[in-house]
Amino acid sequence: MKPKALTQLDDLMAQAEGYANFLMRKNGRVPPTVLAATPKGVLCYVPHDLADVRAKDNFANASRLICAAYGATAVVMALEAWVTMAKPGEALDDTPPSEAFDRREVVVLMGEAVGQKKQKMLPIIRTDAGGFVGFGEFDSTSYTGFQGRFVGLLPPKVPNAEQRALAKAMLEMLGVTDATLGRGFPRN
Description:
Elements: H1 4-27, E1 33-38, E2 41-45, H2 53-69, E3 74-83, E4 104-113, E5 116-126, E6 132-135, H3 161-173, E7 182-183
Antiparallel strand pairs: 1-2, 1-3, 2-7, 3-4, 4-5, 5-6
Helix pairs in contact: 2-3
């Protein structure tokens, strides 16, 4: 029998993939989104914009606060990204992926539960005109060392009631309230 956290993370990853597929088919893009499994159901948070480094940091911090305030037991960050990979036997070129000729457009799913991390890259297949066709196959099992502002979203220890209340108050200062958090998945 699978541990509950593993089953919950697998389920949330599958839901996030379905969410990404739905939005790509409907809108041709996936906005950066955090999905958190909480005792009261799945919460969904999509920031207004990620125009600059500060907005990206605010999104990551708000995601951490959501996990703490609502007692998240699993979380998945979904976002579009450009990736480049080194060819076998070669070092990775230090050209930023957004400027690389051989970049690949993907939706990245980064999931966490207590003691677990899972990542999945969904290569985006588009028509010549830019329309979404579907997701390709990508073996991301060897890519387990994701780093950056959008990882480590769950608190290292389960927050107590006082810490959850403080996190909720900080979220309100950021403009993130129960009313702005989606229950389940948004249908943009």
